[in-house]
């Protein structure tokens, strides 16, 4: 029983803390024995690029997104803009059509984001493609910072940074901003060691020649597109100076809806990307993929449950001060999460309690998403979370 308890505790620790520590140690070693020599394009050498925005019923954001897009810095004549508004029933297509600089693609049929992206890709003839969401806003030099890395022929994709805007009234979604800050640091270290393990749809780029359509029922299409490129042996770089900023989810219920979808997409990706767990293909990528993604989407949420239950059984059978202490610490953590839940329902804002709540919600969402996936209830058609 003690063995199972220790394994569960170590698994949780490694997934959320230990991997980051180990990754940083490996980077320090690499900096000493194999320092990186960046290979980047200058301003006038940048390749041609197409920016694709898939927008569904985004009339509240789309004009601001267009203005943000038109303000991006990139060499004249090297940038094309495509906005796909398939299935939109509001004024989104009408608003986009006012701008001659943008190629509008619209179909009345709603087949999902990935179908819209596939359709847009058929008309792309530039060297690079940048994908970004309709409700995120990029810094002016984002495209330059993304595209400069393609001077290195080993680079197949470049992921930007996602920033979650937190207003002065921190609420239950305060955990989202903290989570993404930690995720961004892990991505930075992943990239320095070998490759980023998947790109987020808010902002990423790829070589057009490496684009491989993913199945229409793909839930995490952005992750799948980028990991298919890594699967071919190319690196996915991380560029923190190219960032996409968005507001947090309107409330924890909306964030939970988004996380459950990610949980369902996570287990789907683990099944579809089995080859990445073969250490004989690319041992470093396998190490990163399992440590950063697979454990979070499979074993670790179950390990949290196992750690608590085995702790109770050990105390009942053997006692022991250390086990009592660990049990009290676990119980305190979950009580803080419950308090965070209770306060969120009453719109009382106390960040120290919402962070445990967000952590528990995130792991619950993985389990719920996995069950949804195996029951066949998770649609690949994106249902966006309401944001502030």
UniProtKB/TrEMBL annotation:
Signal peptide: none annotated. The chain crosses the membrane at residues 6-29, 294-316, 322-343, 355-374. Keywords: Glycosyltransferase, Membrane, Transferase, Transmembrane, Transmembrane helix. One of its GO terms (molecular function) is glycosyltransferase activity. It comes from the Bacteria. Gene3D superfamilies: Spore Coat Polysaccharide Biosynthesis Protein SpsA, Chain A (3.90.550.10). Residues 51-211 form the Glycosyltransferase 2-like domain. PANTHER family: POLY-BETA-1,6-N-ACETYL-D-GLUCOSAMINE SYNTHASE. Belongs to the glycosyltransferase 2 family. This is Glycosyltransferase, catalytic subunit of cellulose synthase and poly-beta-1,6-N-acetylglucosamine synthase. It comes from Pedobacter suwonensis.
């Amino acid at each position: 029983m003690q063995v199972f308890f220790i394994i569960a505790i170590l698994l949780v620790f490694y997934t959320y803390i230990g991997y980051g520590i180990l990754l940083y140690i490996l980077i320090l070693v690499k900096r000493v024995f194999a320092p990186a020599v960046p290979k980047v394009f200058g301003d006038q050498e940048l390749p041609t690029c197409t920016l694709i925005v898939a927008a569904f019923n985004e009339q509240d954001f789309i004009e601001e997104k267009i203005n943000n897009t038109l303000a991006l810095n990139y060499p004249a004549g090297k940038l094309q803009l495509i906005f796909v508004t398939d299935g939109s029933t509001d004024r989104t297509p009408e608003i986009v059509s006012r701008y001659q600089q943008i190629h509008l693609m619209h179909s009345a049929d709603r087949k999902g984001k990935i179908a819209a992206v596939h359709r847009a890709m058929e008309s792309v003839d530039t060297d690079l493609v940048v994908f970004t969401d309709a409700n995120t806003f990029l810094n002016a030099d984002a495209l330059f910072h993304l595209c400069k890395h393609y001077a290195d022929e080993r680079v197949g994709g470049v992921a930007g940074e996602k920033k979650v805007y937190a207003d002065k009234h921190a609420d239950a979604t305060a955990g989202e901003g903290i989570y993404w800050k930690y995720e961004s640091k892990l991505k930075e270290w992943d990239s320095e060691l070998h490759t980023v393990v998947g790109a987020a749809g808010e902002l990423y780029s790829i070589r057009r020649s490496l684009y491989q359509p993913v199945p229409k029922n793909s839930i995490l299409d952005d992750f799948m597109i980028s990991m298919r490129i890594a699967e071919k042996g190319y690196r996915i770089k991380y560029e923190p100076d190219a960032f996409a900023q968005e507001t947090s989810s309107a409330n924890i219920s909306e964030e939970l809806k988004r996380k459950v979808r990610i949980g369902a997409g996570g287990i789907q990706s683990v099944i579809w990307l089995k080859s990445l767990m073969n250490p004989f293909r690319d041992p470093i990528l396998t190490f990163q993929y399992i440590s950063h993604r697979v454990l979070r989407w499979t074993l670790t949420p179950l390990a949290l449950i196992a750690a608590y239950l085995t702790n109770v059984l050990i105390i009942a059978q053997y006692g022991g001060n250390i086990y009592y202490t660990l049990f009290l610490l676990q119980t305190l953590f979950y009580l803080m999460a419950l308090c965070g839940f209770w306060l969120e329902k009453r719109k009382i804002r106390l960040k120290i309690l919402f962070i445990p709540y967000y952590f528990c919600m995130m792991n619950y969402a993985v389990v719920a998403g996995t069950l949804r996936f195996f029951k066949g209830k998770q649609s690949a058609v994106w249902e966006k979370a309401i944001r502030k």
